[in-house]
Amino acid sequence: MMTNNQKLINWVNEWAQLCQPDKIHWCDGSEAEYKSLLDGMVAKGAAVKLNDSKRPNSYYFQSDPSDVARVENRTFICTTNKDDAGPNYNWIAPDEMKNTLRKLYNGCMKGRTLYVIPFSMGPLGSKISKIGVQITDSPYVVANMKIMTRMGKAVLDTLGNGDFIPCVHSVGFPLQPGQKDPSWPCAPIEQKYISHFPETREIWSYGSGYGGNALLGKKCLALRIASYMAKTEGWLAEHMLILGITNPKGVKKYFAAAFPSACGKTNLAMLIPTIPGWKVETVGDDIAWMKFGEDGRLYAINPESGFFGVAPYTSMQTNPNAMLSLKGNSIFTNTALTPDGDIWWEGIGYDAPEGTITWTNEKFDPASGKPAAHPNARFTTPASQCPVIDSAWEDPRGVPISAFLFGGRRPTTIPLVYEAFDWNHGTFIGSVIGSEVTAAAIGLKAGVRRDPFAMLPFTGYNMADYFRHWINIGKNAPDKSALPRIYCVNWFRKDENGKWLWPGYGDNIRVLKWIFERCEGTGKAVKTEIGYLPSTDSIDISGLEDKNINLSLLLSVNKEEWKQEIDLIREHYAQFGNRLPDELADQLNELGKRLY
Ligand code: GTP
Ligand code: SPV
Ligand code: MN
Fold first, then answer.
1. pLDDT tens profile 508-541
2. How many domains does the chain have?
3. Given 90, 168, 464, 565, which is the most exposed site by the fewest CB atoms within 10 A?
4. Of 263, 256, 252, 271, whose CA–CA distance to 302 is shortest?
5. Range of the domain at 530
6. Which residue out of 186, 263, 488, 519 is catalytically annotated?
7. Does the pLDDT of residue 221 top 90, yes or no?
8. Best of 192, 215, 219 to mutate for ligand 2, by most ligand atoms within 8 A of CB?
9. Measuring CA to CA, how many Å separate 204 from each of 10, 114, 157, 346?
10. To 10 degrees, the CA torsion angle through 81, 87, 90, 94?
11. Residue 1: pLDDT above 80?
């Protein structure tokens, strides 16, 4: 045992009694432990060690085909009152959920090891950080948590006798004596439960081994539980990347951006600017925790220590810094595997070598129309390996945020960029953003869905109350003039042939530059019905490869489209009834008046 924390020891013992593992292993977080777990999985046939001369210290996994992404229809917010979970979440009363799950957890770790993972979200010892302890029967989860969080003995030392957020996880596949373990054990979909008890700060996850369902520090703790804590305590836990941007004069600012899953956070966080003299550095690519500092500004930390990124279409052309981060010490899940022991995916920038194996472990046939990598194939890689990791990325005080960006995949209507009139208008924009759905979650209907603040899958309480919390952050800010400015961006507008109108990726610096200049008070804008839009000459397109870029279309407000948008927003808002803050209903009315 590595701790004297009696509460923790008792908690582990209670769960061990229920789950009945063969062994208990307290994770020390060492490299030796990491390697031995992964090599153990290789020996059992659950993982492939990649070719050390190509990708040192890296491992490849194929999941069960039923367990490839977050399962929103099996994710639950268990508050005492149903209304506190609100219209967007599956709700089951806490006691009922716990009864159901106790039955499933009973004996669920037979034939397996129970791993105890003490982890810190945020730099060890930072006032903004939180300590959790996850128990799991998945060595794959342990290895991923080692990359994604600060994990192990040092966390127990920092915890001392203090409180931790308890996180319970099992893949839900007990082994009978002599039964062969599948390479990716998990439970059938109807037995998966990703359950949150925000009022008591507990997470009980059962039946899935993939991503946000199983790495409980990420979406479950750092967003669903943390957003509830943040509401109670007056801070923000957001699905946002954090980047540092420096202009040619050496002036630096930090931006945070919320885009729905698989809509470009990792890419924007580490973009390589196509305008000379500008620099972008990465603080985080998925989650931001923010509190007001003594100077009245909002300071953000990245609670994670790794990237769990979308692999397909990551290439030396689109995101070289991600590719360079992945050079070694990484885990790849549901990509394809090449015959020389490396990984491959669609859009990696070169053809699959003959003999490539797909994520379903078949020989890849490019003519089959079936992709070699699952669209939600992911890499897990240490943030410290990113060539442009920001020097302040582990600063316990966080970095001061100058601007918030909200966005999504919108083929029509939403211009390339516009600025909110003020905080409440910005909150309105955040509350109505939407996106065409992606492969990051299982079983969603195609089309545009509203994903407010990119938090639809991740708020641990009633979304209308979350909107209220954002309004309150503006109202109660110690210095209103120091609040971040708010922007809406859309890299995904298409022409009538379905082609992107905007080159995206490194060229997104052209939009960041305008936002930077607006924050400086220099960028030019025109006031429109929907917000401040850049004048077409204020977006720097110098040196842009595509000379035919249709900026005037990208920066236009089509009134007919916006009138339809208003109808959709009304529908979206209706689900919240009178819990919707009046400020937002007013914003919608004002927008209507400006458009009609
Ligand atoms: P999560 O990890 O699920 O939260 O996703 P994310 O928001 O970090 O998305 P990511 O950066 O991984 O991008 C997802 C997909 O969008 C990838 O296939 C990218 O290639 C693509 N993408 C990212 N940025 C752009 C862009 O500017 N333009 C276009 N057309 N595609 C982009
Ligand atoms: C997302 O879906 O927003 C992700 C991936 O970042 S997962 O961790 O699986 O939720
Ligand atoms: Mn995400």
1. 999 999 999 999 999 999 999 999 999 989 999 9
2. 3
3. 90
4. 256
5. 238-305+391-595
6. 263
7. yes
8. 219
9. 17, 15, 25, 35
10. -10
11. no
Q: What is the distance between the alpha carbons of residues 79 and 37, in angstroms, rounded to a whole number?
A: 36
- List pLDDT tens digits, range 481-518: 999 999 999 999 999 899 999 999 999 999 999 999 99
Nearest to 185 by CA among 224, 138, 225, 151: 138
257/165 same-domain check: no
For residues 63 and 380, is the Cβ–Cβ distance under 8 A?
no
Residue nearest to atom 10 of ligand 2 (CA): 212
20 conformational bin, left if phi > 0, alpha if psi -120 to 50, beta if neither = left
Same domain (yes/no): 86, 176 = yes
Query: Closest Cα partner for 442 from 211, 168, 216?
Result: 211
Closest CA to 514 of 400, 372, 416, 380: 416
Name the residue of 308, 374, 456 whose CB sits within 8 Å of the most ligand 2 atoms, as the mutation to test its pocket: 308
Q: Does residue 288 contact residue 242 with C-beta atoms inside 8 Å?
A: yes
202 within some domain: yes
Residue 556 lies in a domain: yes
Same domain, 29 and 120: yes
Query: Beta partners for 134?
Result: 117, 167
Question: What string of DSSP letters covers 530-544?
Answer: SSEEE-GGGS--TT-
The pTM for the full model equals 0.98
Same domain, residue pair 27 and 150: yes
Last residue of a domain, one of 234, 251, 270: 234
CATH (domain of 139): 3.40.449.10
Burial code (b: 16+ CB inside 10 Å, e: under 16) for 414-434 equals bbbbbbbbebbbbbbbbbbbb
Same domain assignment for residues 397 and 248: yes
Picking from 383, 370, 433, 410, the residue whose alpha carbon sits closest to that of residue 491 is 410
Question: For ligand 1, is residue 193 a contact (CB within 6 Å)?
Answer: no
Backbone angles phi, psi at 242, to 5 degrees: -130, 125
What's the rounded Cα separation, in Å, for the pair 517 and 538? 10
Indicate if 318 and 299 belong to the same structural domain: no
- Residue 21: inside a domain: yes
Question: Which tens digits make up the pLDDT trace of 397-411?
Answer: 999 999 999 999 999
Nearest Cα residue to 138 out of 84, 237, 207: 207
The verdict on the CB of residue 259 being under 6 Å from ligand 1 is yes
Which of the listed residues 234, 251, 286 is the one where a domain comes to its end? 234
Is residue 212 within 6 Å of ligand 2 at its C-beta? Answer: yes
Q: Is 263 a catalytic residue?
A: yes
The type of residue at 215 is L
